Amino acid sequence: MKIELKDKKINIFVYKSKKTYTKRSGWEVDKYTIGLASFDENTRNIYLGIFDNKKSTLVHELFHAMQYINILLHENDDKNVNFSESNAYLFEYLFEKISKKNKMK
After folding, report:
1. For 27, which DSSP code?
2. How far apart, in whole angstroms, are the C-alpha atoms of residue 75 and residue 60?
3. I need a surface site. Which of 8, 18, 31, 59 has the fewest CB within 10 A?
4. Full pLDDT tens readout for the chain, 105 residues
């Protein structure tokens, strides 16, 4: 699954399969990992692996995605109230989009 944040020129790819995640992201995944997040600063792609199909894992990995988005946009100031609020809306948007499309538990 791919989510585009067109105005930010960032793509988020979500995978349930460890094999596909490894192939697309370039990161190896061991047999014990239930979730993983990584990003490529050059392509502006964020990769999320939700291997146990649980919402709790999705929430955890989305937190990391938010960190990567902040890094890519150079917006790391958590003291800015408007920035924190925009993060909350972005998090909500991403969570709804991914959990609905993947019919998660």
Report:
1. -
2. 20
3. 31
4. 888 888 889 999 999 999 999 999 999 999 999 999 999 989 999 999 999 998 888 988 998 898 888 888 876 555 554 566 677 778 878 888 888 877 776
Residue 68 CA to residue 62 CA, distance in Å, equals 10
Spatial CA neighbour of 21 closest among 57, 67, 71: 57
Token readout for 62 is: 């989305």
Q: Determine the straight-line distance between the first and last CA of the chain, rounded to whole angstroms.
A: 17
Beta strand pairing call for 35-40 and 10-15: unpaired
pTM to 2 decimals? 0.77
Look up tokens 């100031």; give the residue: 77
The answer to whether residues 51 and 29 touch, using CB atoms and an 8 Å cutoff, is yes
